Amino acid sequence: MKSRGKSILVVDDNKDIRNRIKHELENAGFQVMEAANCKDAKEIFLTYDPCFVISEAELDDLNGFELCSWIRTKQKSAIPIVFVSQLTSDEDKINGLKIGADDYMTKPFNSRELLVRVETVLRRTAHRCNKITFREITLKPLKGEVKYQGIPISLTLHEFKLLYFLMRHPNQTLSRQQILDELYPNDHKMVSERTVDVHILKLREKFKNHLEEELIETVRGIGYRFIAF
Questions:
Q1: Going by C-beta distance under 8 Å and a sequence separation of 6 or more, which residues neighbour residue 194?
Q2: Is the CB of residue 138 less than 8 Å from the CB of residue 49?
Q3: 148-165 b/e (C-beta count within 10 Å ≥ 16 → b)
Q4: Per-residue pLDDT at 3
Q5: What confidence tens digit (pLDDT) does each residue in 198-217 have?
Q6: Is the peptide bond prior to 108 cis by the omega test (within 30 degrees of 0)?
Q7: Cβ distance 133 to 168 under 8 Å?
Q8: 46-68: pLDDT as tens digits
Q9: In this predicted model, which residue has the larger pLDDT, 173 or 193?
Q10: Whole-angstrom distance, CA of residue 31 vs CA of residue 16
Q11: Strand-strand pairing, 173-175 and 223-226
């Protein structure tokens, strides 16, 4: 299975529905987080900064419309949002789209259709949100930000470029020469492969207090591999 580097928050007070959606999305390579209500959804959103939200419009505490509005107005986030709801009237659908949702499906729903809609929305909104998430590490290339479970990780420019390069090629072995070409496109001939080793060492140091398992694997005689899962 190919991991897509995209995390999706599924919000629904029905555990069976959450499990059904989670199963379909995880089989397609997405990382899935779950919340049964708006309160938990907000906490997860603030901590893990998901790439996508799928929500029921009618929940036990607040409704999904309020959650959508909170994401758009309070958090000023443009991440894709799709409603999968038991509210089926045209008025509900229009309301959901007007407050910022990218799509609206009604229950009962086809899981495969939901997956297709998620993929379609991701393609349509790629310019709005290109963050990458693996192992609770979220990297925002346009803002130059990296966070682990919502905790900012301070990286130098080359450390950031290195991590971004590795995360764009999850579980793939990259040679030291490939990494040099990425980090130093104009003057890599003046930089030794040992420089790559130093950058990797420092990058590992930045995450050693956060992750118990290895983040970047050394592939002897070749280079390095970002362990995405």
A1: none
A2: yes
A3: beeeebebeebbbbbbbb
A4: 76
A5: 999 999 999 998 988 899 99
A6: yes
A7: no
A8: 999 999 999 999 998 889 999 99
A9: 173
A10: 18
A11: antiparallel
Nearest to 55 by CA among 7, 17, 1: 17
DSSP letters of the chain? ----S-EEEEE-S-HHHHHHHHHHHHHTT-EEEEESSHHHHHHHHHHH--SEEEE-SS-SSS-HHHHHHIIIIIS-----EEEEES--SHHHHHHHHHTT-SEEEESS--HHHHHHHHHHHHHHTTTT---EEETTEEEETTTTEEEETTEE----HHHHHHHHHHHTSTT-EEEHHHHHHHH-TTTGGGS-THHHHHHHHHHHHHHTTT-SS-SEEEETTTEEEE---
Provide the residue type at 107 as one letter.
K
Least trusted range by pLDDT, from 103-107, 126-130, 224-228: 126-130
The model's pTM is 0.86
Q: Check pLDDT > 80 for residue 1.
A: no
Q: What is the pLDDT of residue 69?
A: 96
